[in-house]
Amino acid sequence: MKSGLLRKLKRAVVILMVVGLVGPWVLILPMNLIQPFTTMVMLRRAGQRLFEGKRPIYPKRDVVGRDEISPHLRRAVLASEDDRFYLHFGFDLEEIQNAMERAKRGKRLRGASTITQQVAKNIFLWEGRSFIRKGYEAYLTLVLEVCLSKERVLDLYLNLAEWGDGVFGAEMAAQTHFRKSAKALTRDEAARLAAVLPAPRRWSPKGSIASRRASVILGRMRYPAPKEEPDAEPRRRKG
Question: Which helix or strand (DSSP H or E) is residue 234 part of?
Fold first, then answer.
């Protein structure tokens, strides 16, 4: 009796492991063409809004194409969240090392999540800080980097990022906070939206915290996002 139950348990564990390893590939490959219908973060927010009696229950979101989002917002988000986005393969080892050095000096350990990691967490993962969750996040990040181009990962992020209480995606953020489309955002407005990404339900794009953070982001936006290391050898021309 016990041996039969043990076999069933082992079989269930194997099935879960196979689904956990193969499932992300099946779900992520179509994202080259379509946006995910929903995300784990949006579902959690819907549950919270239902419990708090807020309406609408399901968060507001309006998915738009790359051409419908201001280049200023793309650059501002990179400057704020992951300026080495084009230089790493999902994990910014340099930023992780910098974060660890700050922690050794007694400063608060600051997160070093890349945009790809944030996409993985937003779409697939539950809340928590367990080793299992962090390990699965790393796996999902690698699958995203293998299956999708950098530009596509950024497209996904801009359409699923949280920008306020019940506000998701660049278009809804622009309409909610600035009464205009995401395509019409100015450099300053884009920087302000990027500035609140770490705490979008506590900070307002028009508030004092956003103003301070946006000034730093605007300084970074003066330069294009780096796409090769500064000390990299120049590529030789063919022929």
Answer: none
Give the residue extent of every domain in the chain.
Answer: 23-87+148-221
Both structure tokens of 45: 């927010």
Ramachandran bin of 128, using left for φ above 0, alpha for ψ from -120 to 50, beta for the remaining angles: left
Measure the CA–CA gap between 235 and 237, rounded to whole angstroms.
6
Q: 165-186 pLDDT, tens per residue? A: 999 999 999 999 999 999 999 9
Residues contacting 183, CB < 8 A, separation 6+: 64, 67, 68, 69, 70
- Asked if CATH classification 3.40.190.10 holds for the domain at 23-87+148-221, the reply, yes or no, is no
Task: Please tell me whether the overall predicted TM-score, pTM, comes out greater than 0.85 for this model.
Answer: yes
DSSP per-residue letters across 83-122: TTGGGSSS--HHHHHHHHHHHHTT--------HHHHHHHH
Q: Please tell me the number of Cα atoms within 13 Å of 214 on its side-chain side.
A: 21
Tell how far CA 178 is from the center of its chain: 22
What is the per-residue pLDDT across 27-64, written as a single tens digit (0 to 9) for each? 999 999 999 999 999 999 999 999 999 989 998 889 99
The answer to whether 179 touches 171, Cβ cutoff 8 Å, is no
* Residues 212-225 as b or e (16 or more Cβ within 10 Å = b): ebbeebbebbeeeb
* Residue indicated by tokens 């708090």: 52
